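Tokens help. One example:
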Amino acid sequence: MPMRTLEETIAAAMDVSDMELLPFLPYILQDFWEIGADPGTIVALIRKHGNNRERLRVLDLGCGKGAVSVRIAAELGHACYGIDAIPQFVEDAIQKAEQCGVGHLCRFEVGDIRERIRECGGHDIIILGAVGDLLGNSLETLTALQECLATEGMIVIDDGYTDDSDNYRSQASRAGMVLVDEVVFGGESAMKKYDEEYFTLERRCLELIGRYPEKQNLFAGYIRKQQLEYDKMRSEIVCSTMVFKRTT
């Protein structure tokens, strides 16, 4: 099977079924700084499992607008390197780091993480937040990430799975990793967050329909797809943030 193009991987990671929608994503997502992974949860997990070491090297793959890296740099003082394929997101991340006074600790670049991980070795913490199967299945992803990981490092993955799926939890041992912690996102607060996010996305898509009526089907299709995704997260998918370390 040929390798997917960068645009195809972006579309898959962002739940976009029509490539024509990609240029409109920055507008649709303009209200969101935190895209996918919850920064507070990840900061708490690093505090818990980071062995109290100072100035760790953090690799944030699919960093979006930099919310996780900026929060880590601001609260923990670690050096963060974020990579994302969407230029506007990277620009936003750079600006946010400067605004929060951690521009000296954060570096953000546009790139294809499938290629860049081959050049990124020796990181103490690797974060892969809500990017889907960008690096392959669960086993392939854990195996690939270890190439960038320091000997005593940790991998933090934010993902959704079904109870019977072939997921990270079931594949960790095959990859020579062990799941040391997991935070599951759910409950009333999660349902409220999903509702707020969906209505914000819907509002921006309706604005685009007003501007580009000839593309009504494109934006309406995206709204329907997002509604289905949020319905799955409410009832079928376990959304969690997991911490993995090497077994030896």
